UniProtKB/TrEMBL annotation:
Pfam families: Hydrolase_6 (PF13344), Hydrolase_like (PF13242)
GO MF term set: hydrolase activity
Protein name: HAD-IIA family hydrolase
PANTHER family: 4-NITROPHENYLPHOSPHATASE-RELATED
InterPro entries membership: HAD-like_sf, HAD-SF_hydro_IA, HAD-SF_hydro_IIA, HAD_sf
Record flagged with keyword Ion transport: no
Coiled-coil residue windows: none
Keywords: Hydrolase
Origin species: Paludisphaera mucosa
The organism's taxonomic lineage, starting at the top: Bacteria, Pseudomonadati, Planctomycetota, Planctomycetia, Isosphaerales
SUPFAM superfamilies reported in the protein's UniProt record: HAD-like
Length: 272
């Protein structure tokens, strides 16, 4: 049976696992540093649909968890790759942040503005703080006219400091309803994110752990990918929809369990 002792690589979700709004969660920096000191691989796997891996890596570093862009698997960037793999470099109507357009352009796509939706061969929906009726009309008409339809993720909510914003999934459903079409989804729990995370960890899925606070995306997707799943559940009032391999109330508890697994004699202690 797999236990923490056999895990060679750790993939951490970001929102609700490593950070909440603008703050690191307790124990995040200490655990990541300890795993790295022990020579274990660490990556971050985020459904973020507002920013790509470069912005997320900079934010991690600023908050005290040093990270390079290549250590962050972002649904945002994989979406641009997915469009490319399926239909090549094409004119794309992006419903999302300026960062989404930049991410699409970086791999060769040509962003088109909503008023030129007839030119779009693909529509990509991310989280768009400026979403409005005109963008909904342009995106749904483009999809109904035959443009390929991609969603960064189907998350209902986007956590922010004082609660939540409507998530990417809420905007996707508006477009899907009007277009009468379902999107190709890239973010967790769909397999692409986990395949990319395991590939970057450089170990077999059974020796890789997925750590996250969302049962529906992190645990369901991690299990399907054959990874060891660790559910971070600070509020045990959420009923379990799927059984993780391990449930912890926060990263300090995971750190403690990891130290025990590494050193069953108990001579190690939690170091900051
Ligand atoms: Mg999360």
């Amino acid at each position: 049976m797999t236990s923490l002792r056999t895990i060679r690589g750790y993939a951490f979700d970001l929102d609700g696992t490593i950070w909440a709004g603008p703050h690191l969660l307790p124990g995040a920096a200490e655990l990541v540093a300890a795993l790295r000191r022990a020579g274990l691989a660490v990556v971050f796997a985020s459904n973020s649909s507002r920013h790509g891996s470069d912005v997320l890596a900079r934010e991690l570093t600023r908050l005290g968890v040093p990270a390079e862009a290549r250590e962050v698997v972002a649904a945002f960037d994989l979406t641009a790759d997915e469009v490319l793999a399926r239909i090549g470099p094409v004119p794309v109507l992006a419903i999302g942040t300026d960062d989404l357009e930049r991410s699409l352009a970086r791999v060769g796509h040509t962003p088109v503005p909503p008023e030129r939706w007839t030119e779009a061969r693909a529509v990509v929906v991310g989280n768009d703080p400026l979403f409005d009726f005109g963008r909904l009309r342009a995106a749904s008409r483009a999809v109904a006219a035959g443009a390929a339809f991609f969603a960064v993720n189907l998350d209902a909510r986007y956590p922010v400091a004082d609660g939540f914003d409507p998530g990417c999934g809420a905007l996707v459903e508006a477009v899907a309803t009007a277009a009468r079409s379902r999107p190709i989804v890239v973010g967790k729990p769909h397999p692409r994110m986990f395949e990319a995370a395991v590939a970057r960890l450089g170990c077999p899925p059974a020796q890789a752990a997925m750590i996250g606070d969302s049962q529906e995306s992190d645990i369901v997707g991690g299990k399907a990918a054959g990874m060891f799943t660790i559910w971070v559940a600070p509020h045990a009032d959420v009923p379990a929809v799927v059984q993780p391999d391990l449930a912890v109330d926060g990263l300090p508890e995971l750190h403690r369990l990891w130290l025990q697994a590494e050193d069953p004699s108990g001579s190690a202690s939690l170091s900051a």
